[in-house]
Task: structure prediction
Amino acid sequence: MVPKLHIVPKHKDNAFSIRHDIVPQFGSIWHYHPEIELHYLIKGEGIRFVGDSIGNFQQDDLILMGSNVPHTWKCNSPNSTDYHVEALVLHFHPECLGKEFLNVYETQGISKLFEQAKTGLVIKGNSKEKIKRLMWRMIQETGLNKVVYLLRIYVILLESKEYEILSNSVDYIKFNQLDGSRMEKVLSFTLQNFRNKILIDDVAQLTNLSVTSFCRYFKMTSNKSYFDFLTEVRLSHACRLLIKTDYTIAHIALDSGFENPSNFYRHFKNVKGITPKQYKSRFFSE
Result:
């Protein structure tokens, strides 16, 4: 998938920005920006795409995404006019406090943290709780106090081992000069139709490419085949149903677009390393 450059809104005199979003849904365009993003989800759930990772997001998630990491959020919005999602979103450029800030002895390690953030990190445990509190305080502050809270977040992230890596390390810059509109069509089409049988010919037609050219293009830009991508979308949906419902495995398999339960079991075990039943048991035992 090819991302679009997104200009993060920020006052020209501010070093970084934090905002409290309450909106019908998060922007769904596959995009990237040079600023690092720390995203705390207060309300909402759906499927997230971070780099080459596909997974579910839900309330109370805290995710750190590095510079130019392409990402998007596809919300599971009920048919209700008053439904909304909510998040605290902090954006800061790696050099927002000056180029020399990263080169002094006292800030050793921050550059390495920023580099690791390019894999996408889900922050967990006590580290998450501390950062959540700081983000709430930061949004109410101005001036130097706001910078102090940013530095405190740096310290927690730098010292924490409580995180999950989302994505493989990929050279995302190569995506930036390609046309993103056709792959945005592929993403939207897949999310609307993954429960049904999808033919590669129909997907290729969306991009005005031959099947062979489309398969090569998709693999080059997303680091995986289209059918691997489709399987991950289906499995993310299946994981949500395993956790949120009491549906049978057979029902979940069909609702997620798999031909039959045995096909679902095979793909689930291959990608997740455990069976659907073990996945559900582990989730509720944690």
